[in-house]
Amino acid sequence: MNVTPTPIAGVMLVETPLREDHRGAFGRLYCDRELADLAGTRRIVQINQSRTREAGAVRGLHFQHAPHAEMKFVRCLRGRVWDVAVDLRAGSSTFLRWHAQELRADRHAMLVIPEGCAHGFQVLEADSELLYLHTAHYDPDAEGGLRHDDPRLAIAWPLPVADLSERDRAHPLLSPDFAGLDV
Ligand SMILES: Cc1cn([C@H]2C[C@H](O)[C@@H](COP(=O)(O)OP(=O)(O)O[C@H]3O[C@H](C)C(=O)[C@H](O)[C@H]3O)O2)c(=O)[nH]c1=O
């Protein structure tokens, strides 16, 4: 597995190349031994999948507050998405900066979003599917969300936003005095 850092500390791209032979291909999706430097003693406790119909649709941006903060490993199983991590960590040198990475089913890779960062994505191809590995259980009471169009983030989504959940439409804008999450 090849790990590449991004400009945001802890947000990494992990490439997991397939081994091909005459029968087809085989690849590892995750290995706590190979990723020990990145994941430490964290355990994957929940694995989710989403399918999004419309190109241009946006899901997120979501995070969980401590003590339910989580590291997420996000992989595209079908289609293409523009995956975004936003640094919400108090005191971070990249506080409120975002990093985007195109994830696509034919490039076997995952974006790692650490605790204290929000995650969202825009679908670039209809019927794209994502797989998420989580190091904390889903706790709706601990969930927080950012507006995709928050001017303090100024996320440059590549397509016009075509579809959003009611919940994602309703996230509050970041208050001017928001100083970040303690994780
Ligand atoms: C995460 C989760 C959700 N749900 C329920 C809650 C809702 O009734 C329904 C859809 O959840 P939500 O609207 O939060 O799903 P998305 O907006 O696609 O959020 C997803 O995409 C964004 C970008 C993320 O980063 C989240 O981790 C991921 O959940 O599934 C569960 O039952 N279990 C779960 O673990």
Automatic annotation (TrEMBL):
Catalytic residue positions: 62, 132
Catalytic function, reaction form: dTDP-4-dehydro-6-deoxy-alpha-D-glucose = dTDP-4-dehydro-beta-L-rhamnose
Keyword hit for Isomerase: yes
Pfam families per record: dTDP_sugar_isom
Enzyme nomenclature, EC number: 5.1.3.13
Marked site (Participates in a stacking interaction with the thymidine ring of dTDP-4-oxo-6-deoxyglucose) residue numbers: 138
GO molecular function: dTDP-4-dehydrorhamnose 3,5-epimerase activity
GO aspect biological process, one term: dTDP-rhamnose biosynthetic process
Keyword Isomerase carried by entry: yes
Assigned keywords, A-Z: Isomerase
A GO cellular component annotation in the UniProt record: cytosol
Highest taxon listed in the record's lineage: Bacteria
Function as written in the Swiss-Prot or TrEMBL entry: Catalyzes the epimerization of the C3' and C5'positions of dTDP-6-deoxy-D-xylo-4-hexulose, forming dTDP-6-deoxy-L-lyxo-4-hexulose.
Protein name from the UniProt record: dTDP-4-dehydrorhamnose 3,5-epimerase
Taxonomic classification: Bacteria, Pseudomonadati, Pseudomonadota, Betaproteobacteria, Burkholderiales
